């Protein structure tokens, strides 16, 4: 039996028809219904926990009788269901499904659903900065609980897994409620609750951290430090470990006298739901599914599903994952490793970056090195209950870094399902082998799709078809592509044709598992029109996991409407599958078959691949013309900004795969030209790990080809990306290696100037902008070079305190940018000019300029600059008296930068803007916390101006909070940094803040 605490919240179930968050409750028409039989309660509880989906008979049997059910359990279960229906007084409430039983409930009919909905709204309100409203929702959620979950349901497996998960979820929501109250300053209120929580859950470091923060903020530092000593003692005694990083960080902050110690590291977790949709018409595998369900019921399992190609391993793993997902409330991760695909297999780094992003890790917190990625991934999973599905693995070596912990150190909360053609043996794994379907199962799969009349009329023919397809699911589904919609007579004809053999079958060796699949493929292929067959052969060269009609048109060198019609034909034949609006994918076995057909037909795949890659490049250049015209437009744009962004998002994996393919196999020049075309997008959308991998591949290709200009281009983009990631010194090293020529000179000089500005080296920055000014006078230079130089010098003057002089330069740059139709440089000049207007006290003008800049960056999709513009807009609004709108704007900026990740300098600006707004709203405590976060971010990336600015902002917040002695210390630090860096604007800001009355 699971114990649960009710320190915060708690209350009686009200107006719910069903309740599981305590003893089982059923209310019908306002009256309580008694379910007296123990086994009936187990059945009902299991159905309620799996409401709105089919619960298999196997799962119900396991819940009722455990792992060793009686021989007649399958016959007894329907009797229990019948009696349960009678007790509930509604025969139709529990429906029979092909695999088990199902109960459908309205959203608020089950207390568990109401609890989750309320808790979810609380989390959304926290993210929106509405902590008071969030507290109310969290408290309503916790009021749904009435006691120990399923207290009167005598099922060991339900209490071991389901009830334990419910208790874990409740404690998590409790901790989120405490965080929200702490954010509102209700520290004394939560201390008593946290005392009880730490007493009953002494090994939960999060509650100890929250207790320490609450005590510290209540000016009870001695009690806070004593709480740390208690936590350290119990952890050492019970587990033999020291306190974790979060607890130690809070302890260090309290010892240092920080008034706003770091918040306890919360889960910040959005459960991933990456499992594909279950395959329709899934049949058979009952024994195997039951076995895997039993394995996954005990978390910490590693299951390898192996079998021949086409046997349905992916469909099986997806079905098993959906059946087990309730046991893994922290989410389900899924990836196709492409171990046997014609496309290159996914790298470990790419997979881990995707997983970390799905688990809520911001892009700037995702490491680049593979070892660091593995450590970060495993640390993120520690203590969680996540189901990880690794599909299409080629080898144990491919999956080992993706396991939630190293060999012999399994994480007890996470389980892994691996599919492979090979019998992989990672440590601690259990192998489940899938063979072909039984004859009756294969017949059922065909019959369900064809309909009962056709199946009954052609019983023998369908059985023979199943046999000729080797009872292999993929072969059967391909055959169905030819049969669905045919007349009854056509079924027998098709069987006769298949029985006659085919050209590929004559070449098959004995015991070849794929022979049956190739028979079905060959008949489907033979039925295609010549044009559709040609497209099918050409898709073998596709580099990524999916493709669209435009890419198919490039392969064919035909109009898009032609490729759309042919793709419809291929989808109808089940030779390609739809994976989204206008997107298609190939099963890896079909990809191999397509390559075989292309070779047999003598297809010129190299030319098709080149047409495809040329289309990638041509369209990427067009996209760049729309979104980043200042980088050198090649002609009038044919796409809208929305179309350009949509194309990049859809084709991103393919463009990166094409880049790496060209870098390795040629033509090499396409690799760096593709990178050059799409770098502006990748630099502003947070795909840092994948992009760095592709840029490094292009750099290697450029060096191998001895192309100095290409090498310089890729080095500049590497520097840009490292600047985005907050690695300015690394960026400078790449810039130092580059030897730019032509148009690249001004990009190189501009980037160096910006990085030098951020590092606080104003003299070196001025030299870089002087080089841009000189370049602008050359005949080849477009007007954007002059605009960039004016913007750089304007930013430099603003930092030095000459806002009026900076405004003159920036006004000139803005006028030139408008004449040159450069949306991004126009927005840059407008944003910088607005900051000058803010310093000069002209807040309405600043607001107008910043709104224009933000709208421009919204259209082009440059999200980092947009977030920064919103931050400065919040400042201008606040100082102009529009403080409520300023707070909303600052919160929008913070949400955008958190979504984006990878830009600590910009987040530092956003946090300082938020702190300033909070101070003017009379909330000095939260303002101090925001400025401290800004200081931490700026220091982490060596953003010296940001460090000095954060200290200056802290002066005002501390004075407002009545902490003048601390304010004086920060003012001194700001003045010292401003003097060393030449940041006169910061020195004046600190002095003005210190002069304000406390």
From TrEMBL:
DNA-binding region as annotated in the record: 3-105
Xref: PROSITE patterns: OMPR_PHOB (PS51755)
SUPFAM superfamilies in the record: C-terminal effector domain of the bipartite response regulators, P-loop containing nucleoside triphosphate hydrolases, TPR-like
SMART domains from the UniProt entry: AAA (SM00382), BTAD (SM01043), TPR (SM00028), Trans_reg_C (SM00862)
Annotated OmpR/PhoB-type domain residues: 3-105
Origin: domain of life: Bacteria
Protein keywords: DNA-binding, Transcription, Transcription regulation
InterPro entries: AAA+_ATPase, AfsR-DnrI-RedD_regulator, BTAD, NB-ARC, OmpR/PhoB-type_DNA-bd, P-loop_NTPase, Sig_transdc_resp-reg_C-effctor, TPR-like_helical_dom_sf
Signal peptide residues on this chain, from the entry's feature table: none
Matching Pfam families: BTAD, NB-ARC, Trans_reg_C
Family: Belongs to the AfsR/DnrI/RedD regulatory family.
Protein name: BTAD domain-containing putative transcriptional regulator
């Amino acid at each position: 039996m699971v114990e649960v605490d009710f320190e915060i919240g708690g209350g009686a179930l009200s107006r719910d028809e069903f309740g599981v968050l305590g003893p089982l409750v059923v209310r019908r028409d306002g009256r309580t219904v008694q379910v007296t039989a123990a086994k009936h309660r187990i059945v009902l509880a299991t159905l309620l926990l799996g409401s709105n989906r089919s619960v298999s008979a196997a799962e119900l049997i396991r819940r009722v009788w455990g792992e060793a059910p009686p021989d007649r359990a399958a016959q007894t279960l329907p009797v229990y269901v019948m009696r349960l229906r009678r007790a509930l007084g509604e025969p139709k409430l529990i429906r029979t499904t092909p695999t088990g039983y199902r109960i459908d409930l309205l959203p608020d009919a089950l207390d568990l659903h109401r609890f989750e909905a309320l808790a979810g709204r609380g989390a959304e309100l926290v993210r929106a900065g509405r902590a008071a409203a969030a507290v109310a929702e969290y408290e309503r959620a916790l009021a749904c609980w009435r006691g120990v979950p399923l207290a009167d349901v005598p099922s060991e497996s339900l209490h071991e897994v389901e009830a334990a998960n419910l208790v874990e979820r409740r404690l998590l929501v409790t901790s989120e409620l405490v965080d929200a109250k702490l954010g509102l300053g209700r520290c004394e209120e939560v201390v008593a609750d946290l005392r009880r929580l730490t007493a009953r859950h002494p090994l939960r470091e999060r509650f100890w951290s929250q207790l320490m923060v609450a005590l510290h903020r209540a000016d009870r530092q001695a009690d806070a430090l004593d709480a740390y000593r208690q936590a350290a003692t119990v952890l050492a005694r019970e587990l033999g470990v020291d306190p974790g990083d979060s607890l130690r960080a809070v302890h260090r902050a309290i010892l240092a006298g920080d008034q706003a110690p770091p918040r306890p590291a919360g889960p910040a977790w959005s459960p991933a739901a990456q499992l594909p949709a279950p395959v329709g018409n899934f049949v058979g595998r009952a024994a195997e599914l039951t076995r895997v369900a039993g394995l996954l019921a005990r978390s910490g399992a590693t299951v390898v599903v192996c079998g021949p190609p086409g046997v349905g391993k992916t469909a099986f793993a997806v079905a098993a994952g959906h059946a087990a997902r309730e046991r893994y409330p922290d989410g389900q991760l899924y990836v196709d490793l492409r171990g046997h695909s014609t496309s290159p297999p996914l790298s470990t780094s790419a997979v881990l970056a995707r997983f970390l992003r799905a688990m809520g890790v911001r892009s700037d917190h995702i490491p680049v090195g593979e070892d660091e990625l593995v450590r970060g991934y495993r640390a993120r999973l520690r203590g969680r209950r996540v189901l990880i599905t690794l599909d299409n693995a080629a080898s144990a070596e491919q999956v080992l870094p993706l396991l939630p912990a190293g060999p012999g150190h399994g994480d007890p909360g996470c389980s892994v399902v691996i599919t492979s053609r090979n019998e992989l043996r990672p440590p601690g794994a259990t192998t489940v082998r899938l063979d072909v379907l039984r004859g009756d199962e294969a017949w059922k799969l065909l019959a369900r799709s064809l309909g009962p009349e056709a199946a009954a009329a052609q019983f023998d023919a369908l059985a023979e078809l199943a046999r000729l397809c080797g009872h292999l699911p993929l072969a059967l589904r391909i055959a169905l592509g030819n049969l669905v919609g045919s007349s009854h007579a056509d079924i027998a004809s098709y069987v006769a044709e298949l029985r006659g053999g085919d050209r590929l079958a004559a070449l098959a060796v004995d015991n070849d598992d794929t022979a049956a699949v190739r028979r079905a493929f060959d008949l489907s292929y033979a039925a295609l029109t010549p044009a559709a067959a040609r497209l099918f052969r050409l898709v073998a060269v596709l580099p990524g996991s999916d493709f669209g009609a435009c890419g198919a048109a490039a392969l064919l060198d035909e109009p898009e409407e032609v490729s759309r019609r042919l793709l419809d034909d291929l989808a109808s034949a089940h030779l390609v599958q739809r994976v989204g609006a206008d997107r298609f994918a190939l099963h890896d076995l079909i990809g191999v078959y397509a390559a075989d057909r292309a070779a047999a037909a003598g297809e010129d795949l190299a030319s098709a691949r080149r047409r495809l890659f040329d289309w990638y490049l041509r369209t990427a250049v067009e996209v760049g013309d729309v979104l980043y015209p200042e980088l050198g437009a090649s002609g009038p744009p044919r796409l809208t900004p929305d179309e350009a962004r949509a194309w990049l998002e859809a084709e991103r994996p393919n463009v990166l795969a094409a880049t790496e393919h060209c870098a390795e196999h040629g033509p090499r020049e396409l690799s760096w030209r593709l990178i050059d075309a799409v770098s502006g997008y990748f630099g502003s959308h947070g795909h840092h790990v994948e992009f760095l991998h592709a840029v490094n591949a292009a750099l290697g290709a450029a060096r191998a080809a001895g192309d100095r200009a290409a090498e310089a281009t890729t080095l500049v983009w590497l520097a840009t990306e490292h600047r985005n990631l907050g690695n300015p010194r690394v960026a400078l090293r790449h810039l130092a290696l580059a030897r730019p020529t032509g148009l690249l000179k001004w990009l190189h000089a501009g980037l160096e100037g910006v990085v030098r500005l951020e590092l606080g080296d104003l003299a070196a920055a001025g030299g870089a902008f002087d080089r841009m000014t000189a370049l602008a006078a050359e005949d080849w230079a477009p007007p954007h070079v002059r605009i960039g130089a004016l913007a750089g010098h304007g930013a430099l003057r603003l930092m030095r305190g000459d806002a009026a002089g900076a405004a003159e330069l920036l006004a000139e740059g803005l006028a030139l940018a408008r004449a040159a139709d450069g949306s991004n440089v126009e927005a840059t000049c407008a944003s910088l000019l607005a900051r000058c207007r803010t310093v000069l006290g002209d807040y309405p003008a600043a607001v107008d300029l910043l709104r224009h800049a933000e709208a421009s960056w919204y259209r082009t999709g440059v999200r980092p600059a947009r977030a920064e513009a919103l931050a400065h807009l919040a400042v201008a609004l606040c100082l102009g008296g529009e403080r409520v709108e300023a707070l909303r704007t600052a919160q929008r900026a913070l949400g955008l930068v958190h979504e984006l990740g990878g830009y600590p300098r910009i987040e530092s600006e956003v946090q300082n803007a938020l702190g300033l707004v909070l101070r003017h709203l009379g909330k000095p405590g939260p303002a101090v916390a925001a400025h401290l976060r800004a200081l931490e971010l700026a220091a982490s990336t060596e953003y010296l101006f940001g460090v000095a600015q954060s200290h200056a902002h802290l002066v005002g917040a501390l004075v407002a909070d009545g902490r003048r002695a601390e304010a004086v210390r920060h003012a001194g630090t700001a003045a010292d940094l401003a003097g060393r860096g030449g940041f006169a604007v910061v020195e004046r800001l600190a002095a003005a803040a210190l002069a304000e009355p406390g």
